[in-house]
Amino acid sequence: MPYGLGIAKGMMVTLRNLVRKPVTVQYPEQRVAQHHRFRGEDFVWYEERCTGCASCAKYCPQGIIKIVTAPSGEMTQEGEKYKLEVFDIEIARCMFCGLCVEACPYDALHMGSGFERARPRQSDLVITVDELKASAKKPSTWFRPQLQDRGYDPFQPGDDVSWQDAGREKSVAPTYEEMLQRWVQGR
Amino acid sequence: MVNLPSEQITINLGPQHPSTHGVFRLRVTLDGEVITDVEPIFGYLHRGTEKLAEERTYTQIVTLTDRLDYTSSMINNQAYVLAVEKLAGVTVPPRGQYLRVLTAELQRIASHLMGVGFFLQDLGASGTPLMYCFRERERILDLFEMLCGARVTVSYMRPGGVFQEPPPEFWPAVRHLLDTTPDAIAELERLISENEIVLARTKGVGVLTKEKAIDSAVSGPNLRASGVAWDLRKADPYDVYADMDFAVPVGSNGDSYDRFLVRVMEVHQSIRIAEQCYRDMPGGPVRSELPFFFRPPPGDAYAHVEASKGELGFYLVSDGGIAPYRCKIRSPSFINLTVLAEMLIGWKVADLMVIFGSLDVNMGEVDR
Asked: What is the pLDDT of residue A135?
């Protein structure tokens, strides 16, 4: 190779990269866009949809969901609906596989989109039932095609999903007339 | 001139040495700078995956397989679900099979890029080539985030198919990736393949002969670099690999450079397979319905795939319950490590990390 050609080739690489846009993202200030299917940590839970069947707890590979239920006296016609007294998700051991969300037959539990819940103590990394009730209703569309088909985006502000819209069916609870028809007049 | 007495010295490299891949320890005996004895010590990342699998249901084990070789989770998923399907006699819809092959090939690109990047990092090219590889890998991980919401621990596949239909925006994104990745790989090749320092440091270094590779059951790119055209995608096709048209790149000398080159060439072949999957993607369901707690009939099954590091096999024994009675994992990295000592003896300390890096082992898979 003639003298200097290697340097010229090297400088060409430098020149090409000089005019290129940087790919590095300065994280806390800038963020990359997340996809709406992102499996994140702040679980979204709808009290109205949950029956306390504990499918999520049963499907969890780590066994980190703790559920304690009590009869609520609601919906006795449609089978008992249970009141959740304890719904602890110990996300310190959670691996965000999403099997609990896949398991939920009533679309009550959804993944969230967050990833910044760092805490100094492990005991702080438990999502309690009160926290779940108060959390922002911005579910991820992971395993929820009904949300995705609607064009819903959890990263758009002010687009919370109400419990009626979160399910894969139109309305979750039967109306009074339906119950009357099915359970009283139909017999 | 006085003839000074000299003696051999034994040092530990790792488990926290920054240039080892994962938590891995090498006890090296040196005569001056020349390596005379090597003892690989591992087990620092042991999580008991095989034992844990015995108390998980068949679907839950998918999440464990992500964590074996965490740079190629999709392929681990595929190997496991193939074993379960063999055990339970489940058929997979064609779209599910195509999606599996597409994602597995994308994962192979990502894994090989990581292998090549860290190999160049071990050569002393700190940063730049690794970041070239990571830039491309990131875009594949972005696709995985679209598919299944996670970038590394994907848990995308399920016994009976894949868990969910990709979102509509996935297809233009794959198209864009397949169009632009060859250029990016070509740029990496221009930068590295003819580089005199790379050639001087890797040509003829750490030769693994064909006979030795076969005797030690080495598989994957390391075997093919030694000149054996053995690829399970060709030799024992699974999913839809039988319909795919691709070549098996083979090296000639079995040195570090060949191992590096075979990986780069395999990336091109993976792009070819992904193109064909994209072109021929059939419609229909992606998953055949299986209950979450299903009970395969008593018996055993072994399924193996060509993972990015070699032959990855799952041997499952069922006693008719919801969890396997035994789950044995044949991990390629573990078996590829067995030739390390012989490859290293006689070389200098500076070559140690180059040869080790060219093997591209992953400790998550070695220790399980």
From this structure: 81
Answer yes or no: are the C-beta atoms of B333 and B365 closer than 8 Å: yes
Q: State in words which class domain A26-164 has.
A: alpha beta
Closest CA of chain B from A143, distance in Å:
7
To the question of pTM greater than 0.80 for the whole model, the response is: yes
Q: Which residue of B lies nearest to A147 if distances are taken between CA atoms?
A: B167
Position B209: which residue type? Answer: T
Dist CA B26 CA B203 (whole Å): 24
Helix (H) / strand (E) element for B300: namely strand B299-306
Chain A environment of B292 (Cβ under 8 Å)? 59, 103
The shortest CB-CB distance from B167 to any of A95, A111, A148 is to A148
For B72-92, how does the pLDDT look when each residue is reduced to its tens digit (9 = 90+)?
899 999 999 999 998 888 888
Is the CB of residue B127 less than 8 Å away from at least one CB of chain A? no
Burial class of residue B351 (count of CB atoms within 10 Å of its CB; 0-12, 13-18, 19+): buried
With CA atoms as reference, the chain A residue closest to B323 would be A61
Is A142 close to B145, i.e. CB distance below 8 A?
Answer: no
Is the previous residue joined to B15 through a cis bond, with omega within 30 degrees of 0?
Answer: yes
- The ipTM of this complex is 0.78
Q: Which two tokens stand for residue A27?
A: 């994280």
- In tens, the pLDDT along A165-182 reads 777 765 455 677 776 776
Tens-place pLDDT, residues B63-75? 989 888 888 899 9
Cα(B126)–Cα(B117) distance, rounded to whole angstroms? 10
Give the residue from chain A lying closest to B157, CA to CA. A97
What average pLDDT does this structure show over B212-234?
A: 89
pLDDT given at position B17: 63
CA A32 to chain B, closest CA, distance in angstroms equals 10
Closest-CA distance of chain A to residue B218, Å: 32
Domains and CATH numbers, chain B: 47-335 (1.10.645.10)
